[in-house]
Amino acid sequence: MIYDTIDHLLEYSSVIEHLDVVLKHIQEPWEVGSQSLNGVRIRRAANAFAPFSHQFTASKNAVTVHVVLAGKELVASTYHELSKGKKSDQEGYLFIEDAPVAAALTLTEGDFVIFMPTEPYCFGIQTEEAATELRTLTLEIEIS
Fold first, then answer.
1. How far is CA 134 from CA 22, 51, 88, 95, 107, in A?
2. Strand pairing of 103-108 and 72-77?
3. What's the pLDDT tens digit per position in 46-55?
4. Residues 6+ apart with CB under 8 A from 101
5. What percent of the chain has pLDDT over 70?
6. How far lies 121's CA from each of 1, 12, 94, in Å?
7. Is the pTM for the entire model greater than 0.85?
8. Domains of the chain
């Protein structure tokens, strides 16, 4: 997991390819929804909070970049080892049930977090402060 502010995003481009795509999509007009373009899945979400269920998701073959564009969001991760041996669904996602929290972060406007392939995460955890407007951009960049 990498956690930083968006003004430092390109500093990680020597480790993760195509991070410039994230900046391009931040500047595009805001519209909630999902799309896929050239091996990149893009999700724009607003106010997507849910009670924490100890269920985590991981992308089997993609780096997941999650950016908070407005508001405040609690995200969590669990132990990477828990994804070993899990089978992915047709879209390439792994699901880890009833896992403990290994790390929790509060992201505010301009913060991002990057999860490597098979690294489990949970976004949009409901908190007492979740009443603020939340807008997020999540890109999953397929690796070869």
1. 18, 15, 29, 24, 10
2. antiparallel
3. 888 888 988 9
4. 54, 76, 77, 78
5. 97
6. 9, 20, 10
7. yes
8. 2-142 (2.60.120.370)
